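Before a computer can learn anything about folding, someone has to put a protein's shape into writing. The outcome of that step, for a single protein, is printed below:
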Amino acid sequence: MKVTFITTGGTIDKVYFDAKGGFEIGDSELPRMLEESHVALQWEVLELMKKDSLDITEADRAILHETIEGIDSPRIVITHGTDTMVTSAQYLQDIRDKTIVLTGSLSPARFRASDAVFNVGAALTAAQCMPPGVWICMNGRIFPASDVRKNIEENRFERLSRD
């Protein structure tokens, strides 16, 4: 089994310069996280873009869509910033016969107290277990792209419908 990871940037790969919030999107931490976690399946990482999700445009989403359609692997994990993750997930919903899981983090992977490794591990598992479709995996939960939102006040993702 092979899983393809696509990185788009977001908090998971942010590098902060000072307490005033200066940052850039650095090189992906994903290969390091996967190697240190001793992931025992075949994987590859495609670094597609390095953007804060608030800067991702419709043209960027079209590039992401085209990239996914061109990948042979039916299992894909996308690291993405959380602010527009739902928008990107919904943009990809017409892709068939692939299990696509978007994840990210609320604090950078470079931070000791980050949710990044947990979320990537959960997304990797979801990519192997969920049926074809587009999913968001955050906060220990898996959501269909059509039924999720980011609750900014609670700093978590949740279903739109009652569960």
About this structure: The chain has one domain: 7-152. The helical segments are 30-36, 58-70, 85-91, 116-129. The first strand starts at residue 2 and ends at 9. Residues 7-152 form a domain with the Rossmann fold fold (CATH 3.40.50.1170).
